[in-house]
Amino acid sequence: MKKQGEKKPDWIRIKLTTGENYTEIKDMMRSKTLHTVCEEARCPNIYECWANRTATFMILGDICTRACRFCAVNTGMPTELDLQEPERVADAAEKMGLKHAVITSVARDDLADGGASIFAATVKAVRKRLPFCSVEVLIPDFMGNRDALQVVMDAKPDILNHNVETVERMSDRVRAKAKYGRTLELLQRAKEMQPKIPTKSSIMLGVGEEWDEILKTMDDLRAHDVDILTLGQYLQPTPKHLVVEKYYTPEQFAQLKEEGLKRGFSHVESGPLVRSSYHAHEQVKSANDKLAARA
């Protein structure tokens, strides 16, 4: 018999706001043949974020070479590599009038650099069109390729984001190919390459982790100089994905936020519907202020 997860509690409610801004952004994405992680990963905040004219662009196509058990993005062998994509992203960001742009991607293990050069080109293209727009990149692990990471860091994004996703014990079960230690190493290397650029990671809760394991993951991230932490509730996207083992209460998320701040993160975003890019624009200033204070 298929294992059943916990029943979804009342506090997991998604606000549906499909007004003019939402429709305009959706139409713009389609007209420029762009992908967003908001749609592909079925993010619960898409209505709120798009209504507020913010979006996370997903570059390098919409087919991922990995099959993580929590993620709804399509898996297979990609055929798309569009060298004009950075300019289309920049054009859309300019038309949206963004003050903070988030750029992420599928994993492209089929490419020698994992798509790092397209990340760098996209950062530069957005900056050229919108000089005062901060740019955050949420990158895959590039299979540990140091040179690929260097390409991204040389483009000097305002925030370097790479998600640990879960606690060490659950990592191999939840993620495909990605390794807990390699994630921590990447985040440390990014800080070594560009000490002034804030680093960020996210923990997804409800896949079978224990409370003390969450705290240890926080400690591991801080030990590798990660500045920003987000924590959110895992929601099962389809019946074939991991079931939800536990729903954390808003009070527990608030407690975890305090635990994160106690450990020295410059900013902690913690709540049932929080995702890695949720309220991302608010995190840049707090991270930079904290880094300046440490200098």
Give the tags:
295 residues, alpha/beta, TIM Barrel, two-stranded parallel sheet, 39% helix, globular
Q: Based on Cα principal axes, name the global outline.
A: globular
Mean pLDDT: 84
The value of Rg in angstroms is: 18 Å
CATH homologous superfamily label: Aldolase class I
Q: What's the number of extended β-strand segments? A: 10
Which structural class fits the helix and strand makeup? alpha/beta
- Briefly note the CATH topology name: TIM Barrel
Task: Please give the order of strands in the largest beta sheet.
Answer: 1-2-5-6-7-8-9-10
Which percent band covers the strand fraction? Answer: 5-15%
For the record, the CATH architecture stands as: Alpha-Beta Barrel
- How would a crystallographer describe the biggest sheet? 8 strands, mixed
Low-confidence stretches: none
Write the layout of secondary structure elements.
Elements: H1 20-31, E1 35-36, H2 37-40, H3 46-51, E2 56-59, E3 63-64, E4 74-75, H4 85-96, E5 100-105, H5 116-129, E6 134-138, H6 146-154, E7 159-161, H7 168-174, H8 180-193, E8 199-205, H9 211-223, E9 228-233, H10 250-262, E10 267-270, H11 283-294
Helix pairs in contact: 4-5, 5-6, 6-8
